[in-house]
Automatic annotation (TrEMBL):
Entry protein name: Uncharacterized protein
Lineage: Eukaryota, Viridiplantae, Streptophyta, Embryophyta, Tracheophyta
Length: 408
């Protein structure tokens, strides 16, 4: 809840000065280390705080310790940690504390995504630009590319192929083309790329792909959504079927009959699905009817089921979502956020040890409830001003949302 008069004044100023964006603003909260919240300092925010540095923001993507913003005019801004060039700023700044324009991108960016240490942007004509950490080939720029690429660089091997959407994980990347083909690249540990592992005389030769590679087992399907987590990935085809690949360790993601799945397998227990997202070790799916299902590791209650029990199969999240459908969902390391009827709900891990925090002090707040308590069920995030949530994104231990201001 925005308690300060300055915060409320900031919202009103943004509303009056941004008629073209219909009063859209970004609010970011949680761990403030390295300036990832973009508020001009390193302080953590226990409740949502409006971002006053941008007034035509269209979307937000929260990564490991950095955040990307896309404006309605197609420009990309970045804030936070820059130790691997993930901000795309061509200087030696270790971090920035407020959104800084990412140079070197063409006009008209339509989509952004922040991974743990890398970032990407997609142009209106389907061009893919990537930057940041590249130690496992997660930028898709080829084996000779530098391990750190600090400026946006076009993935030239995809020239002539239109990329529709992309998802970035810890050190791997997945994309869908306009035709519905799924491509993956980067670190392939635990099978998270969806490819058969490479072996020579029965010995694993490499688990990395340095350029985008077609996921053969999804060939012939039209994929519409992809998601990338820490050690696993997922996608949805045009029929609403969910496919899962990567780590399936019993203690984390279930599927007790198998440890890992190097090729995609369908999650048969789900109804027709519209969206899928992956967190650290948990997964969320929104069905065509607006129902939310979760499964996987349930540390700190990140599944929203009312307990911390591991679920090996999809379990429906009920509570407030029995009354109104879920339209958006996002997973962090061990917390989750969703939008239902224009309201933001969060649950899971509430605290974190901050790099700059005093010893014994938790600098969390990624749930936005004003404390560092774990919540095992969805709890609505409160705002002082009348807002309607349009988009939400979870990072490692921070959260961002796009809000439309208006009368109650």
């Amino acid at each position: 809840m925005w308690r300060s008069a300055a915060s409320v004044a900031g919202v009103k100023r943004l509303m009056s000065s941004s008629s073209s964006s219909r009063g859209r603003i970004a609010a970011v909260w949680g761990n403030g280390d390295f300036g990832r919240l973009g508020h001009g300092g390193l302080d953590s925010q226990w409740r949502p705080k409006p971002l006053v540095f941008l007034n035509d923001v269209a979307s937000v993507s929260c990564g490991g310790a950095h955040t990307l913003f896309l404006t309605e005019s197609g420009k990309v801004y970045a804030t936070g940690l820059n130790d691997y060039g993930q901000l795309g700023i061509p200087d030696d700044k270790m971090y920035t504390v407020e959104p800084t324009l990412v140079p070197g991108l063409p006009e008209g960016i339509v989509q952004i995504c922040a991974g743990y240490y890398h970032s990407c942007a997609i142009t209106a004509d389907g061009g893919l630009y990537m930057w940041g950490k590249n130690t496992s080939g997660q930028l898709g720029l080829g084996k000779k590319a530098s391990e750190v690429v600090s400026v946006p660089t076009k993935v030239e091997c995809l020239t002539g192929i239109s990329v529709k959407t992309a998802a970035l994980g810890s050190d791997h990347s997945i994309a869908v083309t306009e035709e519905g083909s799924a491509l993956s690249w980067g670190g392939g540990g635990a099978g998270r790329l969806g490819h058969e592992l490479k072996t020579i005389f029965g010995i694993l030769s490499s688990n990395s792909e340095y350029t985008p590679r077609l996921i053969k087992n999804l060939e012939g399907m039209k994929v519409k959504k992809v998601a990338a987590g820490m050690m696993h990935s997922a996608c949805i085809d045009e029929n609403g079927s969910v496919f899962f690949f990567g780590e399936k360790a019993l203690s984390k993601l279930g599927f007790s009959a198998r440890k890992d799945a190097a090729t995609p397998s369908m999650v048969a227990e789900l109804p027709c699905s519209e969206d899928v997202v992956c967190g650290g070790y948990h997964t969320c799916v929104i069905t065509s009817g607006g129902e939310l299902y979760t499964w996987g590791s349930n540390e700190n209650g990140c599944l929203g089921t009312g307990s911390t029990n591991v679920f090996h199969q999809p379990e429906r999240v009920e509570g407030p979502f029995l009354r109104s459908p879920v339209s958006k969902v996002s997973c962090g390391w061990k917390h989750t956020a969703a939008i239902s009827d224009g309201r933001v709900f969060t649950w899971g891990w509430g605290g974190a040890n901050g790099t700059f925090s005093e010893e014994g002090h938790s600098s969390g707040g990624q749930l936005g409830h004003g404390d560092d308590v774990d919540y095992t069920v969805p709890v609505m995030v409160s705002f002082d001003s009348p807002v309607r949530a349009l988009h939400v994104s979870c990072g490692f231990n921070h959260t961002g949302a796009i809000l439309e201001c208006g009368e109650a």
